[in-house]
Amino acid sequence: MSTDQKVALITGASQGIGAGLVKGFLERGYRVVANSRTIKPDAFGSPDVLTVAGDVSDLQAAERIVAAAIDHFGRIDTLVNNAGIFISKPFVDYAEADFAAMLSVNLAGFFHLSQRVARRMLERGTGHIVNLTAALAEQPQKAVPAALAALTKGGLNAVTRSLAIEFADRGVRVNAVAPGVIKTPMHAVRTHKILAGLQPVGRLGEIQEVVDAVLYLEAAAFVTGEILHVDGGAHAGRW
Ligand SMILES: NC(=O)c1ccc[n+]([C@@H]2O[C@H](COP(=O)([O-])OP(=O)(O)OC[C@H]3O[C@@H](n4cnc5c(N)ncnc54)[C@H](OP(=O)(O)O)[C@@H]3O)[C@@H](O)[C@H]2O)c1
Question: Which end of the chain, N or C, is surrounded by fewer C-beta atoms within 10 Å?
Answer without folding.
Answer: N
